[in-house]
Amino acid sequence: xxxxxxxxxxxxxxxxxxxxxxxxxxxxxxxxxxxxxxxxxxxxxxxxxxxxxxxxxxxxxxxxxxxxxxxxxxxxxxxxxxxxxxxxxxxxxxxxxxxxxxxxxxxxxxxxxxxxxxxxxxxxxxxxxxxxxxxxxxxxxxxxxxxxxxxxxxxxxxxxxxxxxxxxxxxxxxxxxxxxxxxxxxxxxxxxxxxxxxxxxxxxxxxxxxxxxxxxxxxxxxxxxxxxxxxxxxxxxxxxxxxxxxxxxxxxxxxxxxxxxxxxxxxxxxxxxxxxxxxxxxxxxxxxxxxxxxxxxxxxxxxxxxxxxxxxxxxxxxxxxxxxxxxxxxxxxxxxxxxxxxxxxxxxxxxxxxxxxxxxxxx
Length: 363
Hints:
The chain has 363 residues and is of the alpha/beta class.
């Protein structure tokens, strides 16, 4: 499978309230068959093992869902193989994962055993120094995100009126009547995934994931974060018709939806901004900005421009703080890596692959 066709989400996000976790939605515990929870500190090979497992299962024809790390999108926090009811997840803080059916479904894998403890004693002082500065960088990032979110909330409070919400709900009903025919026997399920995140690489969005699952994309042009009401109506209608949905929260406001995917219909609704436009010609485009009160927009033009400019600057500061944290984490991993038995990590990965493949035989 080509990299651009891979399904990649995030289950954690850097938000104004700190790290926000959706790891309780990693996989349905009632249908899961084998979940491996990795334990171990920095540089012990957790992401390396997950990449190994994902690649091995892809080579055998299985669809794999990759969960990127919000701290470093080039690293993984989990891989999920839906067809097998299997997953491997980094269960260390801040994304702690606790087993629901320990031994039956979930089991721990201690990669800390792959450290050379005696050798690590020689770099103990350096390790402790890196860990202290790392947390301070995240605290600074979260303060910047809090300030940016407050400005964005001020704008949204100005523009979101009962009239606007009524317009969006009406538009959603029209879309549902056109796109969803009939009703299902059962109500569909919703699972939450972040489609992007605020990372040391900037504000990212996994548009490739949308393309991998949905051929028809509604682009919701949404400069001011207005989409939640429309997306909520669309999700409710799709589930009422029996379709499962992927509801994607906004990292700055994780209690609000920013995107909606309905893979069974090959249909997606993606909010875009001037900074993160949809990279292709959409199936349809809806300008949510134009649905707001035109007089309010004209009267508040200077205020809106100021809020967007300052909010963007604060996001840049947050990204800079996350980049500093990433540099410290790289230094930390650089100290650990020479003292990790990666052959042993690889062997653990091979055993997990074998166990997952055996699940097919037991179906």
